[in-house]
């Protein structure tokens, strides 16, 4: 269980940093992090970091895929987590 918690914290921190880095690069008109990478990080458990990154840095807030997709990913991850947790208890 400790490994899972460490993983979730780590991937969310990395996702948050990637959103910050992409926002910083967009202001400098530098090479950007692809949207596939940002969504991929959210899919592997970093949805909370993605949502926080969007809100804190006001980044990708006009993109439908990010505004609706990441919260849906988070809801699905919470549902999967609850399902797995309930199976462990039984």
Secondary-structure element series? HHH
Query: Helix/strand-derived class?
Result: mainly alpha
Give the tally of β-strands. Answer: 0
Helical stretch tally = 3
Shape: elongated
Radius of gyration: 14 Å
Q: DSSP strand (E) fraction?
A: under 5%
Q: Could you tell me the mean pLDDT?
A: 94
Largest sheet: none
Give the N-to-C terminal Cα separation: 16 Å
Low-pLDDT residue spans: none
| Helix amount | over 70%
Could you provide a short overview of the structure?
This protein is mainly alpha-helical.
Folded structure, characterized:
This protein is an all-alpha fold and 90 residues long. The chain contains 3 helices and no strands. It has helices at 2-27, 35-57, 64-89. The longest helix has 26 residues, at 2-27. It is elongated, with a radius of gyration of 14 Å.
Q: Which descriptors apply to this entry?
A:
mainly alpha, about 90 residues, 3 helices, single chain
List the helices and strands and how they pair.
Blueprint: H1 2-27, H2 35-57, H3 64-89
Helix pairs in contact: 1-2, 2-3
């Amino acid at each position: 269980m400790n490994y899972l918690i460490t993983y979730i914290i780590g991937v969310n921190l990395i996702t948050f940093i990637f959103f910050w880095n992409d926002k910083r690069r967009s202001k400098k008109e530098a090479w950007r992090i692809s949207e596939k990478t940002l969504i991929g990080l959210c899919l592997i458990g970093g949805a909370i970091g993605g949502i926080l990154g969007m809100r804190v840095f006001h980044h990708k807030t006009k993109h439908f895929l990010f505004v609706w997709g990441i919260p849906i990913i988070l809801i699905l991850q919470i549902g999967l987590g609850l399902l797995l947790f309930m199976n462990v208890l039984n």
